[in-house]
# Entry
Amino acid sequence: MTLDRYLEAATRENTRRSYASALRHFEVEWGGHLPATSDSVARYLADHATQLANTTLRQRLAALAHWHREHGFVDPTRAPLVRRVLKGIQTLHPSIENQAEPLQLARLAQVDDWLATAIEAAREHGDRANELRHLRDRSLILLGFWRGFRGDELIRVQVEHLRLIPGEGMTCFLPRSKGDRQALGTTYKVPALSQLCPVTATCSWVDAVGLTQGPVFRGIDRWGRVNATPLHPNSLIPLLRRLLIAAGLPNAGDYSSHSLRRGFAGWANANGWDVKALMEYVGWRDMHSAMRYLDGGDPFARQRIEVGLQSPALPPP
# Structure
């Protein structure tokens, strides 16, 4: 039992769920067999070429590759046949990568204003459940934005891993995260700010419930009782979208938990952070990961081109 626990801990929970879903699709829904042959994997890809996005197909291959390695079989996904089929699918069915809409700072402020008002209204009406729910959500959205946390990182923040540094901020230790390949743990510094402060919001939530250990972000029932277990990962996107709708923001369906991370990255980039500093702060390991989040302050190069258009025309030769 102890050995199984350590083996399970070596893989992120999100990855385990994703891989299990992919294997179930291959075996149960498509009718494949494990261990698989390169021919069956190639046919699986071809059968879903027009149904699944290229990123999804690559994720399915990663799950199959992992299963074969873990069970001591030759990895069929590395066969030339499979690679050629995947390349052909990407050529004939190119897909645009869907990215979450970044939550801009002005919209974050709008949501925070709504939450502040809702907290006061709940207190006036003696509505303990909604007061706690709004305090939790305010902490979650501000901490998620200013630390650029992924959704699964947010729900794994533990109370005992928070350390308050008066006048400066707090530190937040995560024993593991996506970029921490060696599982050594990472300590993140969370700034205390004059407005939209993640430290104040988190302390207010933790103090209101009297949390001393366990997950910071938990479910709350209609009577105001706080669960001992963390929020489910699948609840974060609906939670965020409900907040955006309540605050009057349009197109709430375009946002996801990644919107906080993308929003902060865009804000930092627009305010002069160099890419290296941003990568270190957020925890990106490579430039490619960082650039996926950055649209730049002039994404269409409009401003740069307009400057050129205002310059005097060159004299004819």
